[in-house]
Amino acid sequence: METDDPYLWLEDLDGADAARWVRDRNAETVAALTNGEGFAALRAELRRVLDADDRIPYPGWRGDHLYYNLWTDAAHPRGIWRRTTLGQYRRAEPEWDVLLDLDALAAEEGENWVWSGATVLRPGYGRCLVRLSRGGGDAVVVREFDLDRRVFVEDGFTLPEAKSDVGWIDADHVYVATDFGPGSLTSSGYPRVVKRWRRGTPLAEAEIVHEGHADDVAVWASHDPTPGFERDFVGRRLDFFRSERHLLTATGERIPIAVPEDAEWDVHREWLLVRPRSPWAVGGATHPAGALLATRFDAFLAGGREMTVLFRPDDRTALSGHFWTRNRLILATLVDVRSRLEVLTPDGEGWRREPLPGVPEFDHSEVVDTDPDNDDAYLLASEGFLQPATLRLGQVGGAVETLRRAPASFDADGLAVRQFFAASADGTRVPYFVVGDPDAPAAPTLLTGYGGFEIPLTPHYSGVIGRGWLARGGTYVVANIRGGGEYGPGWHRAVLRENRPRAYEDFAAVAADLVTRGITTPELLGVEGGSNGGLLTGVMLTRHPTLFGAVVAHVPVLDMRRYHRMLAGASWMAEYGDPDVPADWEFLRGYSPYHNVDGDRAYPPVLLVTSTRDDRVHPGHARKMAARLREHGHDVSYYENVEGGHGAAANNEQRAFVWALTLEFLWRKLAGRPHQPLPRQVSPVDALSGP
């Protein structure tokens, strides 16, 4: 069946013919969309938003009472990794201790380094393992870094480029899962073997501690250094949602942690938390999918099954996350996609509940970080579609202070946020948010969604959407369709495998409801989505073309026949199905955008955006879709960034360009004219950026 694909050659990342094809398509798209003052002004506005000096420098805690931050701006496009004290962070202009300058490092080494994170040694905090990506892909180079001397450690722990998983055991040992050579990777391209590596010895001599099978997603190992609770864990990810996990003893014995394979679990000090994805009968009770259960870890290993229910979902409420402090547990829930937070305290008799202090009533709030090694502090960010973020520092049972307020990036006067519910084809109630002028006639409207992997879309403040779309009179819509995590595991499970079309029916229902309510018209309605959301918009193009005036897909999955053979695609088969199984291919074939392009049907214009360096979703998806659409005479624009990984951009300059291209395309196709420069708006961003 694969030999029937006439565009298979476009999957060759480094092939001369494919590279020439990409250059030609890029040149066509850039020439068509970037001409004129409107695009240049839009791109400059978005760059100012992304680089604004008064953005919140979101911190992360590492356990040493310091505030770590990666900062990018016009002078530091790749970023500087830095840290400061709480006292300094409270100041309008803190004094930062710069640990690593990525721009200087890239220039010195002649590499296009993109920051991918760092893991700090606990306790001690003097060393870390820095992850650097070439161009923004998932594959990284790992290097040990001395935080006190601010230099890479000569002859320290280093790994060449690979999709590695590395974590500290102690100052002289790490767990490492990486590409050890032939046979060491799974079919998804992730490590199949994890080893214990001792400082000063060759990686080849590291001791194997756990192995998986070729058809697993990956294996892993981790060490918990909490004083008095030191322990090690190993496990296999069987597919995207199921795992096998063990406690690893000092003698090498693997003790199974007998929670359901599809459950999420977490161990903190004496506690084990379990969130099943399907109903779990245990200890004489059956707990629903999406509940959160607590028990003492040692008692559970010994066979005890007495569970305390910390959260039970209902038709409107789902658990979106939980966060340990030293002695407390913060629960984050969604009620019709609106955030609620509370704190639970084990008190010997049970778990005492109270609202989390400092949470505003109407904004969406998320826990940025906690410090479970040391105290009950938490960082809380609150924002909304029209409300810039506020960062607060709280202490459970104590004071809450505002550390930072983000400036407004656009004028929100006259705009409002409304929530509606559409009825899907099977009658399911599907929520969506509408942002814009509620009194305006039908306007160019940008609808976005995702609907997969139990990932919710929640209210957020976007200066890019605000300046590039809302401020120009556009309406912005976020659809919370099934497949996401807005209503817990059941909302996700409803569209797995052969039931996937329900997600697309949900999205089409939202589009139709927008028209029924007079918010927009099909000719004025554009749709955008990325990754699995790109699959969503690809299906809208081929299944529901009359509902939309323009379609954009970023780093999309589009070829459902070969997705599992490209890069990390095999890890998604639990979500979509296995195309090599005839029964699965039958339902995948029914909606695969690449296989449903019709030359006799009118399609709205489409823009496909991807990255050569995306090593998660292969750019071949977008390349081949563009080629097939062109073959059938459809209006298709294509842009492939050479960097950027799965985000399609490696820095703010590239992000501004990609989003300016996207919004310019949509505005031209929907409004029938190019973007026009905005009149000057009174905002801190403008004040800082000058005339």
UniProtKB/TrEMBL annotation:
UniProt keyword Protease, yes or no: yes
Keyword Hydrolase: yes
CC terms in the record's Gene Ontology section: cytosol
Span of domain Peptidase S9A N-terminal: 3-219
BP GO annotations: proteolysis
Domain Peptidase S9 prolyl oligopeptidase catalytic: 470-671
Gene3D superfamilies linked: alpha/beta hydrolase, Prolyl oligopeptidase, N-terminal domain
Any one GO MF annotation of this record: serine-type endopeptidase activity
Entry superkingdom: Bacteria
Keywords: Hydrolase, Protease, Serine protease
Protein name: Prolyl oligopeptidase
Naturally occurring in which organism (per UniProt): Micromonospora echinofusca
